[in-house]
């Protein structure tokens, strides 16, 4: 076990040195700017991990030196701390310059200082957390070793073999304990999230329109819609608002939503969603959207409302909740729910839509944001299947582990950057990171149109496991986005860790940066699905209205 101090008065010099190097690395630029407390947390975690690595390396070196090096490189604690503070202070001018380069890249004003109080709290919290985890793991290892060692044969006759076997079995036992712990954690988080999902926001009352799920006329009871669904079926523009903004005659939009409290399998719930579409005469609408939700069942109101404005309400939106936990928890602990739930909905709705007369059925489009994008794409075998089964797709902030997206990125035309690819000259699939970006290519954009929306500084899109050990394509020369700081470089393990922190902090950025796509999604939906014959000024008014919406990040949903 690595001890931070001996007798409360001494610290390990080797550990502190490596820890200070880790602090310096933690200050380097990443995808998104960090507040003082966030930077402090990162630096504190980095110092604690570096300290442990430094102590371990010194002990290995001392053992290999056969007595030429002392067993521990310790010094008085105040000396080590003082040198550490001096080193950290020397790094701060560089840290400010690096952070300002990130802020400039995302369109934020420069900062001219550092909030030392919040930074210190972050460092203390991060260091404590890392040391506590390390001590917990070490303590667990010792206890399991003590339980396993007496039961391993051959301790007297073959002590080395017995010791190796004991160590291996202890590691396996720790992995089993970790797996069980994650299962318990998943159960507790799910239970808490389900209860939270049943706590409705009074600002979103039960809809009275029969065109909404949860109404008295609906096949989905109001108490089965859930908190996330209530905000969807109770929200959206009214007919008068649609007509005021668009300047044309409008219809009341259809919104179908099936919550997790509806009993049955995913397939049975998906069939209920289809029955709701039939009940509301969704087949008579101009456009039908299958929307993939995030982990909690959330959908971006800016995208939904913008879609309805574009088509003057002649729309139907159908969605189905597959879980109640936030997207990060869902993606890590229960990723199969997004795939299975969304796929069931896509299959059921598409099968029903295919039975409708070809000359009298709505345009079928799919939309997904973040884990919703992953879920939508999981419903199709490949890009060709997606294009053959739909009449358009808008996919925003697609996670890096999405196979169809990854294949499309890898198949990009020669010379086009990884951060914003061109595929087959943009004939069917296009990428954009800003409003109007889908129209920049000179060639014709044929049906079926697929639009990928991805910011160059979105950690959800770019950070994956491979970033730990290999330089990502999106950081290489000629491949990187202008939204990424010119000072950002790949550092093994560090860049991936910074990306995880960026994910947590991805809401503290302007609209149309990081993992926020509300405004950009409206442009994508316009380019893919068209509009209700609106004038350019009407589209400008829609954009102006949507830009007034509160900005959200699906990371917290």
UniProtKB/TrEMBL annotation:
Q: Please list every transmembrane segment annotated in the UniProt record, as residue ranges.
A: 12-31, 37-58, 78-96, 116-141, 161-189
Q: Where is the Alpha/beta-hydrolase N-terminal domain?
A: 27-237
Pfam annotation, one family:
Abhydrolase_9
Tagged with keyword Transmembrane:
yes
Q: Write down the InterPro entries for this protein, in alphabetical order.
A: Alpha/beta-hydrolase_catalytic, Alpha/beta-hydrolase_N_dom
- Reading the lineage from the top rank, the first entry is Bacteria
The name this protein goes by in its record: Alpha/beta-hydrolase family protein
